[in-house]
Specification:
alpha/beta, TIM Barrel, about 15% strand, globular, binds 2-phosphoglycolic acid
Length: about 250
């Protein structure tokens, strides 16, 4: 089955609303592509200007987080319907920075995933091991555990539409990319895990990205792997280089 490539930029906590409009004007002509889904995951306050600035283009806007309640006394949080009404299509859930600095648990992520689906948002669920876990040889077990707990109770019909990003924590923002073999090994293990929980058809539909120091030099080889359907790109997504990553062959 042909899966459509998806390349998403994770802007993290960068760019003010005014800078967002400028950066989109710079990147817009560079990321035009007929056969790749292009997503900019911007800070919450930049969502509205980003939606306006990308109207009529091939760029979809994503959020970097959301809460699992509909509304109410949750100071500082953003609800799925707020994102949906603003025109957001994707939402990154469970990025390692959120798991580490904001103590997000798999249990909370499971609730967030269910809510995102309920509101028609496409989650980009992140998973990934620490360097210590890799050195202990427990990478695949750990990732399988994350996937199984995060997807607990979510039907195959939803999972087949979602995106999973494998992001080894030791490769994020470090300039140290996983080797192509390491990245493919884990992305394949994620797909096998989906086949085990659901079925082959679901495993063949779900799109799996690699993330962690993706750049214009390593994207082609990574994205050419059979189980890697694109990338989640941090640092390089804020530069014209992102256009090369989107259009790499
Ligand atoms: P990086 O970040 O490309 O800067 O390593 C990736 C990510 O955290 O999504």
């Amino acid at each position: 089955m042909e899966r459509r490539r998806i390349v998403a930029g994770n802007w993290k906590m960068n760019m003010t609303p005014a800078k967002t409009v400028e950066l989109i004007a710079t990147l817009r002509p560079l990321v035009e592509s007929l056969d790749v889904d292009v997503v900019f995951c911007v800070p919450a306050i930049d969502i509205v200007p980003a939606i306006t600035a990308t109207r009529g283009t091939n760029i979809a806007i994503g959020a970097q987080n959301m809460y699992f309640e509909e509304s109410g006394a949750y100071t500082g949080e953003i609800s799925p319907q707020m994102l949906k009404e603003a025109g957001v299509k994707y939402v990154i859930l469970g990025h390692s920075e959120r798991r580490e600095y904001f103590h997000e648990t798999d249990e909370e992520l499971n609730k967030k995933l269910k809510k995102a689906f309920e509101h028609g948002l496409t989650p980009i669920l992140c998973c990934g091991e620490t360097l210590e876990q890799r050195e202990m040889g427990i990478t695949l077990d750990f990732i399988r555990m994350q996937i199984k707990s995060d997807l607990n109770g979510i039907p195959a019909s939803k999972v087949e539409e979602m995106v999973i990003a494998y992001e080894p924590i030791w490769a994020i923002g470090t300039g140290r990319t996983a080797t192509t073999e390491q990245a493919e090994e884990v992305c394949k293990a994620i797909r096998d895990c989906i086949a085990e929980i659901y079925d082959d058809a679901t495993a063949q539909s779900v799109r799996i990205q690699y993330g962690g120091s993706v750049n214009a030099g390593n994207a082609s080889e990574l994205f050419a792997q059979p189980d890697i359907d694109g990338g989640l790109v941090g640092g390089a997504s804020l530069k014209p280089e992102f256009g090369k990553i989107v259009n790499c062959k």
